[in-house]
Amino acid sequence: MTNAWWLRAPISAALLGLVLWRVPVTEVKDSLVRADASGLLAALAVYAVAVAARAARVRAFCRAAGAPLGYWAVLRIFFVGQLAYSVVPSVDAAYVGLLGAAGRNFTRAAVIVGLDRLSGTVAAFAIGMLALALRPDLASTLHPLAPLLVGTVFAGTLIGLLACFSPRIHAALWRAIPTPLREGNRWVAVIARKFLETLRGLADHKRAIPVSLGYALVFQLSMLAVFALLARALGLSLDAVALATVFPLMVLLGLVPSILGIGVRDAGYVVLLGQLGVSAAQAVAFSFCQLALIVVPAFIGAALVASGVHGHDRRS
Predict the structure, then answer these.
(1) Do the beta carbons of residue 141 and residue 275 sit within 8 Å?
(2) Residues 74, 95: Cα–Cα separation, whole Å
(3) Shortest CA distance to 230 belongs to which of 266, 181, 282?
(4) Sign of the C-alpha dihedral computed for residues 162, 165, 171 and 173 taken in this order
(5) Which domain holds residue 28?
(6) 217 sits in which H/E element
(7) Are the beta carbons of 113 and 74 closer than 8 angstroms?
(8) Is the residue at 284 inside a domain?
(9) Please, which residues have CB within 8 angstroms of residue 114's CB and are 6 or more apart in sequence?
(10) What is the pTM of this model?
């Protein structure tokens, strides 16, 4: 964990330093000072809707996987997870740890977080595909291969999500495990069996697929609305469709190790929004506003930790 932190910190520092070296800091400051406060508050309000949808999506997967966690417990885990994200290797690792501790089953927690990640990616790339189809001129502006990349990731994650609920896939995975590993008592064998047992349990809860994808679309569309409100508050000449074309590419950049996306997100927006006519200073200001939104749940998580409320209450 410490090594992962020391890996992410230099990456964030190096990329942020490079961005601020190339971008006039005074112009970034001026963009932030001139931002419309009402637009920023509206973005924060819509972000609250996105967080609520995210918690509902995770709760749907919890029910499908048999995890006895209520909605408010999941919501609190989200807040504390955002706080832990500054320490642990990834936000997904934070959620696995918190969900596993709350439900007393870390294997099941890993499956839930994986399903949450898959459904969110499917929704984000579906929106991106629609945006690229509506604005083919922007597709060529970003990169000629952008539609192919977005379509490939969408298809792959959708197939992966559906496979998690398929009894045939479960059986094939079980047969693929060597017999000594299936029947052994080593921790690898135990984890493999628990993982497949959790997946088998999903076969009877296929209704979770459309439900979770519905919540995922609400979440991603809410986040797109947040970005559009931030862009308007900063005076950027970008509509929601233009932002949606950048949306899935920024999701992929989020895989780069960093601390809260610092540096990676800034550099990504400078490059991608720059191709859409946004100045580097405005792109950095836009990125900083997103960072401020991400920090809000972390502060709420800190308050919950300080008050001793961690989301460990369970509901059968």
Answers:
(1) yes
(2) 10
(3) 282
(4) positive
(5) 2-165+205-307
(6) helix 208-233
(7) no
(8) yes
(9) 164
(10) 0.89
